[in-house]
């Protein structure tokens, strides 16, 4: 298992509903171990298994939930 920790900047999150939407979208992906949004920093910290899920999949899950990933 290739465990990796990454912070992703996300635009459009402003409330606890946004926080839960992003965290839940990421947690549905196989390989995501932890996802925690910091609303004040507009970031989500994600711990995941690189062998099971890619950055592109993480990004797509956030965008599918209605938020913009800032590369």
Description:
- This protein has helices spanning about 15-25, 55-65; strands at about 5-10, 30-40, 45-50, 70.
- With about 70 residues, the protein is α+β, with helices and mostly antiparallel strands.
- It has a single domain, classed as Alpha-Beta Plaits, CATH 3.30.70.
- A four-stranded antiparallel sheet has the order 2-3-1-4.
- It is globular, with a radius of gyration of 11 Å.
- It starts with a strand and ends with a strand.
- The mean pLDDT is about 95.
Features of this protein?
2 helices, four-stranded antiparallel β-sheet, alpha+beta, 71 residues, 31% helix, single chain, Alpha-Beta Plaits, 4 strands
Report helical residue fraction.
25-40%
Strand order of the largest sheet: 2-3-1-4
The biggest sheet, with number of strands, parallel, antiparallel or mixed sense and barrel status, is:
4 strands, antiparallel
Q: Tell me the fraction of residues in β-strands, as a range.
A: 35-45%
At CATH level 3, the topology is: Alpha-Beta Plaits
The count of helical stretches stands at 2
Short description:
The protein has 71 residues and is an alpha+beta fold. The chain has a single domain (3-70), classed as Alpha-Beta Plaits.
Q: Could you outline the blueprint of secondary structure elements for this entry?
A:
Elements: E1 3-11, H1 16-27, E2 32-38, E3 43-49, H2 55-64, E4 68-70
Antiparallel strand pairs: 1-3, 1-4, 2-3
